[in-house]
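I would like you to sit down with the record closing this message with an eye to the fold:
=====
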Amino acid sequence: MTSPSSAPTPDARPWVLDVDRRRRTGVPEAVYSPGKTPTHVREIVLELIERGVEPVIATRCDDDHQAALAEVDGAHVLGRTSVWNPTGPTGRRVGVVTAGTADHVVADEAAITLDALGHDVTRIDDVGVAGVHRLLDRADDLAALDVLIVVAGMEGALPTAVAGLVDTPLVAVPTSTGYGSSFDGMTALAAMTASCAPGVSVVGIDNGFGAACVVARWMRERHVGS
């Protein structure tokens, strides 16, 4: 039997926020919306804002989550991700590259997260290997950026093609798009981890947020004593 002193109260919040994460790791705690009620997502966002977290990021929001978050002023929304309190500019230039339009929802998650973290984002869309001339036409643009996130489904060939053109650090993101034996992104994931272009880093399927966090860690300025 639960004693009265330890019984949960009706207004107890079923979460504990990590408001110090950005100082420790370079990226803040984000609100992963699936599995949470719209009310919980809104209350968590409001608490993060109240406690001065920068930026505040809510990912994978469905229509009901977004309707609840519309009540929170100051949101910047792209796709299924919403952000508040973006940080100041870092001066770092990050490219988010997609193979096709079906990959844009994942690229949007990466792009808005990077923007919230203060990076200058350049989108280079629809340059998949099925029309490789489009990729070759953008080689100089790719090389001019500090780091790249390359998003692709199907057989996942685009990151290898990009990494064979430029020396820019690169994070590959497999997506769950594709026909036949794409297996909801498993084929692209396996292809990217088996890339013949050295130096390609890979995150999980559809993980645009995770790719942005990789970039944030790479780009974080460190002050090393002499």
Notes: The chain is about 35% helix and 15% strand. Residues 27 and 213 are 6 Å apart (CA to CA).
